[in-house]
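Hi P.,

Sorry for the delay on this. The queue was packed all week, but I finally got your sequence through. Input first:
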Amino acid sequence: MQDLLRQAQIQLDVLGAKIATGSFTMAAAATKTVTDANVTAASKVIAVPTNAAAGTLQGGAKHLYLSAIVAGTSFTFATASGVAAGGTETFDYVIIN
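Then the structure:
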């Protein structure tokens, strides 16, 4: 994934965009707030499943969506069904500004 991110950063630099990356483990809850000062109100945040539990979550009714952004502070993912995740799902994320 790092090679892909480097290639994407080169292309985004040409366009004047920036990326930031990180990872999180979904809480055993219906939402997960991730602290990252790189997020802006206009950011695009993409979550990529990194284990089987996360892949299963993304393939079902609990699929994550970006539910909130607090510019310069954090963003929140929520399950589409409103039902708690298992708490073992791991994700990498990319913020595009």
